[in-house]
Amino acid sequence: MATTTRTAAVPPTAVPAAAVPAAAVNKPKRRWGATAFGVAVLAVMLFPLYWMVNTALQPEAGLLEVDPFPSSLDLSGFSSAVTEQGTNLLTSLAVALGAVAICLAISAPAAYGLAQFRLPGTKAIVFGTLITQMVPGIVIANALYSAYVDLGLVNSYFGLMLADASLGIPFAIVLMRSFMVAIPREVIEAAQVDGSGRVRTFVQVVLPMSRNSLITAGLFSFLYAWSDFMFALTLNTTDDVKPITLGIYQYIGAHVGDWGSVMAASVLSAVPAAILLVLAQKYIAAGITGGSVK
């Protein structure tokens, strides 16, 4: 007679506390510690911005009489800043956008040539481009002033656009070249086999694949032009072309007792750059090959 053997189900035993790795226990604590440290660093970095906004909302208070927290919102400082600095904000916006267009129009073809064409002395050219970033701005401004006087570009929008574009062109060339080097040559050769010339291949194939680098280079070029003060002060002798940086500089001297309006003008000058950074941040770290995948 056959006998059947039944095995009793063994209940799962709890893992002893000593068997749990110590790193797993301390991991949440480390995360909280890193988060707290990050929040503290962020608070320190954003405190000047908060104090600028806080002072702008208390236009009647002196610089040493500003409350840490405004009891009421007074927007008279902003209305005064818009009235007196609104034209300068529009001037800065026009000059910065023009500088971005000039920068990308020059740096994109240059980066493509250095990346895809086997040109002699490519490394020396790239190294020289990096060296130009080390030249002090005052040296370039003084040299440009003499040339601008001869060319009639002093006190002109186009002249200031060209000068501000020169700030971003070296960085844009180096940045976009590093992106375009990674473009597979098979993609370019396939476009040429289909009948596309070099210009058409560059416009319809290379530029879409380099969209993220174009946006990044354009963003930094905009920030360079938007925050420029040296060229604005050196290449303009009248108030015909006065960016917001030069306007705030002169505004402080005329309204040294009205720090609320001065801070309000500073807040307004920071808004366009902040909006642009928020809108373009997702493109900065994106991969280059995303534009070629369908």
TrEMBL record:
Cellular component terms per the entry's GO annotation: plasma membrane
Asked if the record carries the keyword Membrane, the reply is: yes
- Domain (ABC transmembrane type-1): give its ranges: 89-280
Gene Ontology terms describing biological process: transmembrane transport
Give the residue spans that cross the bilayer: 32-53, 89-112, 124-145, 157-176, 214-233, 259-280
According to its record, how does it sit in the membrane?
Multi-pass membrane protein
Q: Which InterPro entries match?
A: BP-dep_ABC_trans_perm, MetI-like, MetI-like_sf
Its protein name is Trehalose transport system permease protein SugB
Q: Which gene encodes it?
A: sugB_3
